[in-house]
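Progress against Task 2.4 (sequence-to-structure conversion) is shown through the following example record, which the project officer requested during the mid-term review.
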Amino acid sequence: MSARAACPRWRSLPPDPDRLHTLRVRHSMWLARIDAKIAAVRQRQAEQERGRSNRPRPPERIVELGIGISRPPVRVQAGDCHMASKRRRPVDRDEARRLLTAGLQSCTHCRPDTQLDIIDLPRGTTPAPPRRKDTDTMNTPPPSLSDPDPSAFACLGNQAGPFHPAPVRAGREMGA
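Structure tokens generated for the chain above:
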């Protein structure tokens, strides 16, 4: 018994040489496409590996910058800290030590002050940079709830506001 007779797939092939040749050409075209895809995937993997190996190392320390025109420094952090914001710039060891000893906050997550061997800084009590008085809305007291503005409830008409009882009309009750 031959190999062709043993395999049922060989029986499904066409018997004439022209159609067999067409199948062979199509099969070789598919093999060429598969080989091209394999080469492209290998090249992409090699480029990704080259990119990973050539990626610059993150800085050892960064300083987080504030918001605004002058963008004052806010906090010193390790370069790989997960709490770092996008507003930052790299600093070297000496500048980080100088900023921390000048009173700038250190990150409470990555603790760059302990990495820099600065142990006499108070933990979390360093003052934040001063804010301008004209934009300081966080320190304004909330409006007093004991004296609500009556015009705030003008849209309710005769209905009672949350701080005013329902009006009483002489001679009859409101619900009747």
